[in-house]
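Archive transcription. Copying these from loose printouts into the bound notebook so they stop getting lost. Printout 1 of 2:
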Amino acid sequence: MLTLFQRFSLSPNRLALFETWGPIGIILLAAVLRLYNLGFPDSLNFDETYYVKDAYSLLNGGFEREWGSGADASFAAGNPTGLLNDPSFVVHPPLGKWLIGLGMLVFGAGDPFGWRIVVALLGIATVWFTMKSAELIFNSKIWALVAGFLMAIDGVGIVLSRTALLDQILGFFVILAFYFLLRDKKQVRIQSWDRPWLIAMGVALGCATAVKWSGLYFVVGFIAYIVLVEAHLNYRVQRSIELKAETSLPKTFWLIPSVTQALRNATLVLVPTFVVYPSSWTGWILSKDAWSRSWADQAGNAITGFFAWIPTTLQSLWHYHTEIYNFHINLSASHSYAAKAYTWPFMLRPTAFFWRDKDSGCLFDTASSDCVSTITSLGNPLIWWAAALATSVLAASWFRTRDKTTTLLALGIFAGFFPWLLLPNRTMFEFYVVSYSPWVILILVAGLRAWFQNSASPRKAANWIAGLLITMAFTSAFFYPIWSGMWISYDFWRLNMWLPSWI
């Protein structure tokens, strides 16, 4: 089928040039939107108060420690002081904070640019791997460019890439794992241990889990997908043989190889996953004073009986994990920006990360309006609302067609979104969507592609799609000031608040 751009009589040479330089342009766009004025705000923004200081603590001792009063202000002044000797109870694994610390090593702990640069680079890389994943799924560089473009200009990715939180780091590792899964599908070897892309996927998933435990949802989802898809393939092979031979074979003909494949594939994924995850705790293991580090060495705490052989270090680490688990399952504190998971796809309650005001000297300044600088983790509403519509259409179609591409694209949504629906009482925030936002974009692109391919007038559909993309780009330009903290008039900020729940 002719591509979207060939419908406009684009010459093969120009099309090839566009496909070559287009991805570079997309990445440059993503970089500009994420790196522009990255050092602002010059204070710890939202939960940076935890992760930036934890990163500094890891760099200066290998484990997280408590901070004295006024530590946030000293960080903002470029003088990170106030680190105490007492260990701190933290509820997320260390890898994401170690990565944040890399930027601080290069640019200094007192430089806000250094706090955020690694997260920003991983956010840019997320755009790249979303684009490359789209190319593998749709077998089209043009639709891959559309996916990369939408990913580059969406506000959730922009805001979370400009803030030293863990969620964009998690988002990078899970889309990286998905890309490796797609590469494995391109050269799958049935009944073979020679599947390096599965091993790479396991490493990426181990890193995701070592950033936030919600990476485990993707571990389960991706393994389940591989097992079920390959079992179905074995079943189809048996049915094909039966039809050709006009005879029946025992169910064990496809069940046994499916089980052995499942065990083999789970091993290829889980071994690297569970090597990488505990490795991220090396700083804690090598320390003596970290939180719960000596728990098993205290009287009455060590395991007795059959499992007494387990080193006390690992017993203490396990105990620490039980403490973290208990924290998460009991987290139900009220918060003004808490958002139930079922509202996330519609961008109903974005989180305000930052607010500052002054009298004058800003974009669209007026004599009657003050100036504000604000950062709100709001996705481009046209992208997210269009994606919700595309999801509904593709889901309805799936029950009739069992389309494999739709099944594949639903994988990230099931792993990144649906588990949160099972935790209705837990405190959660809308910006968690950044972990599965690449699949939101991919589903939207799948919907646009289906619209184009099934249209009675492809040229007219192409015009509508191009117009929609341009409108989405202008919408992102409109919202960019509240994604990047630009100084704008209060009246202009009010124009950005389309829904009362955004305030």
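Printout 2 of 2:
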Amino acid sequence: MAHSYTPGLRVAEYAVITRERRLPLKGEVLVQIGDKLSAETVVAKTELPGAVHPVNAVNILNISPQELEECLAVRIGDAVKREQIVASSKLFLGLFKSQVRAPVDGVFESFSKITGQMIFREPPIPVTVDAYLDGIVTQVFPEEGIEIQSRGTFIQGIFGVGGETHGTVKMVCASSEEILDESKIPSNCRGSILVGGALLTLGAIEKAKRLGAKAIVVGGFSSQDLRRLLGYDLGVAITGSESIGITLILTEGFGQIAMARRAFDLLAKNEGKKASCSGATQIRAGVIRPEIIIAQQDVAISVETEHEPKGLEIGSIVRVIREPYFGKLGRVTSLPTELAVLETEAKVRVLEVEFDDGTRVLLPRANVEMIEG
């Protein structure tokens, strides 16, 4: 059977999902191998150093840098409060006094006999990393973090914005072709991951944010509305760190595109269950896809189910990612080995795809992505 590889999105009812959870710098790991965790469990913590604030003390005190040490009112390492007097000098026969005050709450960190500066540092910033998934700790990285493994339903999207979150799956559209507008956002959606159909309106996302929804998963969204939502053009950066108050995952792309039936049906089947999701996306090298993970630790996953994604084969389900068939799903019916000549006279590998209506077309393999089950 003909066989090749093409990039694809994974949509699997049962899969094993492994994620690493690491701190940005060394700290303390709080869990052990074998621990069963919920998504909210803090697995590691550390502290980021606070901001540094230099003060040119010798200019304020009108002294030389060598005289600074004997004018200090605090010692290195002492905690200080904003506006606390930390150094002083007497001028004009001791009748007048100049004073240096702490610029922030924090710690007096150091001073220099060369520059005459005093250095203050704000309190450290606590940083924690949670498990993200309901799962089991399979590996510990000392002072850094863990690897957690979960099993259950795994659905990748094509584009997303917003960070990691978790909530309860809630269907708000009856079919994958429905438009998700403001009228379909329920009042009782706090803490929910809302699942829509073909298109999400800007009004709907704003209402969902006001009502406390955690995320929205939908087929498509307007690129113009995305700019309005973010307040800027996104460009080609890695997404996932946007502070927009909600996570948005598109399963198909920009515009009015029905969510792939398999993804919609799997989400509907898991309505009411807890899910973890992330909008992080990177299209270039080291591809990162937005994802929805519905952990089901009690599900036994067989060797046949737990597999690495296969390459493209006859019978594979693919989505077309170029016009004039953009967004359409079909099944591969032929994988010719010989190169075909396009209208542009370029020679490329092609494949034949049959759409749901029975139509068959010949497409460059670069124009499709595989829907991996």
